Structure of DNA replication and repair protein RecF:
Amino acid sequence: MWIESMTLQNYRNYDMLEAHFSPTLNIFVGQNAQGKTNFLEAIYFLALTRSHRTRSDKELIQFQKDSLHVSGSLVRTNGKVPLDIHLSKHGRTTKLNHLKQAKLSDYIGNMTVVLFAPEDLQLVKGAPALRRKFIDIDLGQIKQLYLADLSQYNHILKQRNSYLKTAETVDKEYLLVLDEQLIHYGSRVIKHRYQFIKDLSHQADKHHFTISNELEHLSIQYLSSISFTAVDEIEEQFRKQLEASRKRDLFKKNTGVGPHRDDLAFFINELNASFGSQGQQRSLILSLKLAEIDLIKASTKESPILLLDDVMSELDYTRQEKLLQAIKDNNVQTFMTTTSIDHFKDLPQELKLFTIEAGHLLDEKE
């Protein structure tokens, strides 16, 4: 798949902008704070209905404006698909093929993206919430059922936590009802994640082995707060561990076990990657991104759109070469931001170059 064109209105520092893209490589060049990252964010927003940089939707709407509008024409193997998002203080409206979508899970997954940004280098050493977000975004694009199960789990978790905080006297029967619903959807979330991480680890290892000149193996361990040895015992173990945590939950007034406390661990040659070199960690993240492309392509039969936000300068020549070769091999439409293309080597000739200054496309060359 690839984006043929996009229109932005009142999005961050863009008043009104329409752009047409190459199906291969598109490079946005400009100094810092001119709008390069904002444009990539808008592509991400069109795919996932939210920003990767902020949780506050109002930050996306241009200052002193009431709403924003982002639309695009997506080309898939079965034809063109118009996408449309309108965001205002009253809420968000998403349209697919000009038809309003009642559920986000019906919209997300039609346009898939893989984002590689400088903050991804924190995936290895950063907080567990970053790694859970990584799982949710990538698995959510592949599996609509996962998004639905996760949404139900989060809704019940919020109910349970709210009840624990506000109830003067806890009704144990009501708490048991909430617990059963939490166990049902939480177990489904864990099963989805377990299989996804298993597949991701396999694909990422293949890429990392190549990038490291066949010197290093990469493995990813799924650290669930629910201890289990087999998938078919997850629900039973969740129930047991939730019961064991009840005294703690009543005292702390929140839920101590469940997929909201999941984490990941990365290992290079069986050593924890958080203690690895900066170069090893860059190779690890690059391997993850290439593995994401593989899994999305295998699941959807379409190549995702790759967004590279000022990361090529973070990679040495060898890693740049591996990334550009993977883009070419997978026929992935790519959007790249940079302050200069002078330090790049072996860029393909069939690219489109945009110059961005103060929210305007000043130049456009093929």
